[in-house]
Design brief:
Blueprint lengths: L2 H10 L3 H10 L5 H13 L3 H15 L5 H11 L1
Helix pairs in contact: 1-2, 1-3, 2-3, 3-4, 3-5, 4-5
């Protein structure tokens, strides 16, 4: 089981804070983990948090968004 899968599972159950705790505990974050956390925020109507995470993604982790990231962000602002 991957970190991203666990984050996704918690978020789908509505446990967004637990998902964020897992995300924060990850030794190394990748685009998949960011996408899982941002999607969880959007699914649970935490749109601003998803956008804040997107804004910090490149700054904090130096990761570039992929196509999935952009779809999630568009969902957050729709």
């Amino acid at each position: 089981v991957t970190w991203a899968t666990m984050i996704d599972g918690y978020a789908k159950l509505g446990f967004v804070h637990q998902a964020k705790t897992l995300f924060d505990q990850m030794p190394q974050r990748d685009v998949v983990a960011y996408n899982s956390m941002m999607a969880g925020y959007v699914q649970n109507r935490y749109h601003m948090e998803a956008l804040e995470m997107f804004n910090g993604m490149e700054k904090k982790s130096q990761l570039s968004p992929d196509e999935t990231t952009l779809v999630i962000v568009l969902s957050a602002i729709a």
